[in-house]
Automatic annotation (TrEMBL):
Per-repeat ranges for TPR: 107-140, 259-292, 327-360, 361-394, 395-428
Organism of derivation: candidate division NPL-UPA2 bacterium Unc8
Domain of life, per lineage: Bacteria
Coiled-coil intervals: none
Alphabetical list of Pfam families matching this protein: TPR_11, TPR_16, TPR_8
Record flagged with keyword Transport: no
InterPro entries: CellSynth/LPSAsmb/PSIAsmb, TPR-like_helical_dom_sf, TPR_rpt
Descriptive protein name: Tetratricopeptide repeat protein
Alphabetical UniProt keywords: Repeat, TPR repeat
Length: 611
């Protein structure tokens, strides 16, 4: 038995609902509709899945031709009437809900949908539909009576009285309803208490086992299959599910190969949230008739709910094998293989989606992302290009292509992509920063080329000048990139530290000090910021202030002589030497010497003090 603690909503959220939301965001409405139909086959009472299905259908048809919508609406209405005659209530609901998602609500049909919700035990949905009917046609007598009865049964006596009163305004001579109105008013005055149905799931299970025991006692020869099936259908219409189960069980005892009985049992077990039993019955159905596509789909959904991904995959693979290739099934298989961590098989199934539906632009992103995860950049770029052919003005996609080109080192292609994205989305500051990053990489490449040439011709003065200019250009670009990053993330103090170092390298000491001082109160950056401030003061010839900041940097450390501490001690030693304080300088150098004799020229400085 699957745990009752796991709610239908949680499972749908994990496997169907969230994927449907994503599919709608991707404008892949057919896939979203398929996902939501699967979730409703597992839990017909899920209101949010049903509501989202209506949204998906609306979005699918909102851009279509009005004539097409009208024709589709007529077809759906006729299908709804047809399934009503067959008493296939789930199909009726499906058709009418589909109808109202693409055409305006119609008062004559809405009460029919409300009645079917009522048959299925979906009371809140029924009330909602009846209330919508009254918005469209406030004097609909049938609906007023229905709401009066339902609201009274739910203990909402005051609301029931209001609807009853509206009915009597239109038909004041209806004696029966008039009497009901008086009874309702009396109930409000007396304020009767309500009986509560206290039957638990355990009690339901006991009743079910009792019915099964009764079936076992009957001999096969005494069971009339036709009568049992008819009785079961009647019980289903009356929402007497336990009784219906008992009748269907009798059928399966007398006729184990009766597919209809096994399938009906599966549907009833789903309604009662007996998912293991539902799986058992549906497995019997597909064993008897392997081409029951709807049952295979439902079974796969049940296995997903159970967490048995392997069995779910097996069912979807059978659907692919037995029936024509379908985009939603391949898409679901891809999702399931991805959940199992089998990226190769996931890609294979997603590629089938792309092959069957080349206009399905979002699938190329999914495949591209998976290739990117596997560090297969050329293949990822290929998939994104396919999507871009369908969405040439998608700035997010174009920027992503630029990122991949940059990662691959194709700077020209990267800049072209970023420039195109910037034209479409000029307010996107990150793209401007990325364009500067490309220019920086280009300058790096030029520098490497010049430095390689200089090795073979070390006396070439013109080449040396070019290298110096390139270094200067690179530094300015790095400053520009860093400034852009700070604009995007003004609270990131590490960027201020980085910018300060660039200004310091460029000789812009005052600008560097501003950036370093902005980092002093950040505990993780404090020591480095104080050290950098001290170094700037040293360059400016303010040695006393330099010593003050460097000593503060020393105090901000951990007490261990690590790399940063050695740099601070060495700098303090140099400044002390410049001040003519040889003894103090040696005290700093010795602290380094004690832990790292190989640090710079500290050994020479310390040892010379003993000569």
């Amino acid at each position: 038995m699957i745990k009752d603690g796991v709610t239908t909503e949680a499972v749908i959220g994990l496997w169907f609902y969230d994927r449907a939301v994503k599919a709608i965001d991707e404008r892949n409405y057919d896939y979203a509709i398929n996902l939501l139909q699967l979730s409703l086959s597992i839990d017909p009472g899920s209101s949010r899945a049903r509501s989202l299905l209506i949204v998906a259908r609306k979005k699918k048809f909102q851009t279509s031709n009005p004539l097409r919508r009208q024709i589709k609406g007529i077809v759906l209405m006729l299908q709804g009437f047809f399934f009503e005659k067959l008493k296939k209530w789930d199909r009726v609901i499906e058709k009418y809900e589909y109808l109202f998602s693409i055409v305006p609500l119609q008062a004559p049909i809405l009460p029919r949908l409300g009645d079917i919700y009522l048959r299925k035990g979906m009371i809140d949905k029924a009330i909602g539909v009846y209330q919508m009917t009254l918005i469209l046609q406030q004097d609909n007598l049938y609906t007023l009576l229905r709401l009066t009865k339902l609201l009274h049964e739910q203990g909402k006596t005051k609301e029931a009285v209001q609807h009853c009163k509206k009915y009597l305004k239109v038909k004041p001579n209806d004696f029966t309803v008039g009497q009901e109105f008086k009874n309702l008013e009396a109930l409000i005055v007396i304020d009767k208490g309500k009986w509560e149905d206290k039957s638990s799931l355990v009690e339901g299970a006991i009743r079910r086992q009792s019915e099964e025991a009764k079936v076992a006692k009957e001999t096969v020869s005494k069971i009339d299959v036709g009568s049992c099936l008819q009785a079961a259908e009647t019980f289903v219409d009356q929402n007497r599910w336990d009784d219906a189960i008992s009748e269907y069980k009798k059928v399966t005892v007398a006729a184990p190969d009766n597919i209809a009985a096994h399938q009906a049992l599966g549907e009833l077990y789903i309604r009662g949230r007996w998912f293991e039993e539902a799986i058992e019955e549906y497995e019997k159905v597909v064993a008897l008739d392997p081409k029951k596509k709807a049952v295979l789909n439902t079974l796969a959904g049940l296995y997903v709910r159970k967490g048995d991904i392997t069995c779910a995959i097996e069912k979807y693979e059978k659907i692919i094998l037995l029936f024509s290739k379908e985009v939603p099934t391949y898409r679901l298989l891809g999702d399931l293989y991805l959940k199992k961590g089998n990226i190769k098989k996931a890609i294979e199934n997603y590629q089938q989606v792309a092959e069957l539906d080349p206009q399905h632009s979002a699938i190329y992103t999914i495949i591209g992302d998976l290739y990117l995860k596997q560090e297969e950049l050329p293949k990822a770029i290929g998939e994104y290009k396919k999507q871009m052919a369908l969405e040439p003005a998608n700035p997010i996609l174009i920027e992503r292509l630029g990122d991949l080109y940059l990662k691959k080192g194709e700077l020209g292609q990267a800049k072209e992509s970023y420039s195109k994205a910037a034209q479409i989305e000029p307010a996107n500051k990150s793209i401007a920063g990325k364009i500067k990053e490309v220019e920086l990489r280009k300058t790096d490449a030029i520098l490497k080329h010049y430095e390689l040439l200089l090795k073979s011709n070390p006396k070439n003065e013109e080449l040396k000048k070019k290298i110096a200019r390139a270094h200067q250009d690179k530094l300015k670009m790095r400053v520009g990139v860093c400034v852009e990053k700070i604009k995007e993330n003004p609270g990131d103090t590490s960027l201020h530290l980085e910018l300060g170092k660039l200004y310091q390298e460029e000789g812009m000491l005052d600008e560097a000090l501003v950036e370093f001082q902005a980092c002093v109160n950040e505990s993780s950056l404090r020591q480095m910021a104080l050290y950098s401030i001290g170094a700037c003061f040293e360059k400016k010839g303010m040695l006393d202030m330099a010593i003050n900041r460097l000593e503060a940097a020393l105090a901000a450390g951990t007490g261990l002589v690590d790399g940063q501490t050695k740099d601070i001690l060495y700098k303090l030693g140099n400044i002390s030497e410049a001040n003519g304080d040889r003894e103090r300088a040696l005290s700093f150098y010795k602290k380094i010497y004690e832990t790292d004799i190989a640090y710079r020229d500290v050994a020479k400085k310390v040892e010379s003090g003993y000569l």
